[in-house]
Amino acid sequence: MYKEVLRSIENVEVFPVVSLVIFVLFFIGITIWTIRVPKEVIDHMSSLPMDDNELNDKQP
Fold first, then answer.
1. pLDDT tens-digit readout, 4-31
2. How far, in Å, CA of 33 to CA of 41, rounded?
3. How far is 60 from 57, CA to CA, in rounded Å?
4. Which of 36, 40, 43, 57 is the one with CA 20 to 30 A from 19?
5. Could you write out the DSSP letters of every residue in 38-54?
């Protein structure tokens, strides 16, 4: 049944290619961002889970 439904869709063979291209571009983009991000940003993000100052400032 599913095969017949998919066969009835025009140009259905394009969708797997488009989704693969989107995934590869996203993966390459994240990889480039990871390589180029400054070390200060990484240090700041790594300290966020342990930083209590922001939580204490917002509490009444």
1. 887 788 888 898 899 999 999 999 999 9
2. 12
3. 8
4. 36
5. -HHHHHHHHHGGG--HH
> What 3 state SS string does 1-41 have?
CHHHHHHHCCCCCHHHHHHHHHHHHHHHHHHHHHHHCCHHH
Which sign does the torsion angle of CA 14, 19, 24, 30 carry? positive
* Tens digits of residue pLDDT in 30-59: 999 999 999 999 888 888 887 676 555 554
pTM score above 0.90: no
What's the token pair of residue 8? 């009835």
